[in-house]
Amino acid sequence: MNSIIIYFSLLGHNRRIAEEIAEKENCDLLEFASGSIFRGFQYLMGKKRLAKKAKKINIDVANYNEIIICGPIWGGKPAPAIKALLNNLDMKGKNVNCYMTYSQDYGNSEDIIKDLIQKNSGEVQEIKFNKISKE
Ligand SMILES: Cc1cc2nc3c(=O)[nH]c(=O)nc-3n(C[C@H](O)[C@H](O)[C@H](O)COP(=O)(O)O)c2cc1C
């Protein structure tokens, strides 16, 4: 299995998780939309521009048959960067796993993620939510 891990992380949890998986499984690692604290502020202030910017993605996954996406839950949903990835990656015929972190509540994110993967012709594999104990 030729796999790539793509992650978005603001506070570093997903970066660490993605790095650990990459080392253990010996797969490629890519940071998407590098996390800066301003993204969190922009999100909270409802700046739509951020979502538009995040949509311009240019990641070639042609050489991989498995995609692993790691990222946080924001506002009870996958963070905008993760939604942009799920919306725009070419997942046709790929096995797609999602490992998300949250601190309190992830609402119906599992269904949101499944729908986006399927809409994008990907094969849903594992979708997991890890509660982080400390911010
Ligand atoms: C703007 C923002 C919104 C968040 N909203 C939620 C939420 O609705 N539910 C929840 O359980 N955690 C929420 N969190 C906590 C994040 O899920 C947690 O900080 C994240 O999983 C940590 O991942 P990271 O270190 O890779 O950024 C929020 C965090 C931020 C910054």
Give a topology summary.
Layout lengths: L2 E5 L5 H13 L2 E4 L5 H8 L3 H8 L10 E9 L2 E2 L1 H9 L6 E8 L6 H11 L3 E9 L4
Parallel strand pairs: 1-2, 1-3, 3-5, 5-6
Antiparallel strand pairs: 3-4
Helix pairs in contact: 3-4
The structure holds flavin mononucleotide.
Structure report:
The protein is built from five helices and six strands; from the N terminus they run E-H-E-H-H-E-E-H-E-H-E. The protein has 135 residues and is of the alpha/beta class. The protein has a single domain (3-131), classed as Flavodoxin domain (Rossmann fold, 3-Layer(aba) Sandwich), CATH 3.40.50.360. Strands 1, 2, 3, 4, 5 and 6 form a six-stranded mixed β-sheet that branches. Helix 1 (13-25) links the parallel strand 1 (3-7) and strand 2. The radius of gyration is 14 Å and the shape is globular. It binds flavin mononucleotide. Residues 9-14, 40, 43-44, 72-76, 101-106, 132, 135 line the site of flavin mononucleotide. Flavin mononucleotide is lined by residues 9-14, 40, 43-44, 72-76, 101-106, 132, 135.
CATH class: Alpha Beta
Helix segment count?
A: 5
Percentage of residues in DSSP E strands? 25-35%
**In total, how many domains does the architecture comprise?**
1
Termini, distance in Å? 34 Å
CATH fold call: Rossmann fold
Average pLDDT taken over every residue: 88
What does the largest sheet look like?
6 strands, mixed
* Contiguous uncertain segments of 5+ residues: none
CATH homologous superfamily classification: Flavodoxin domain
Oligomeric assembly: single chain
CATH architecture call: 3-Layer(aba) Sandwich
Shape: globular
> Gyration radius, to the nearest Å?
14 Å
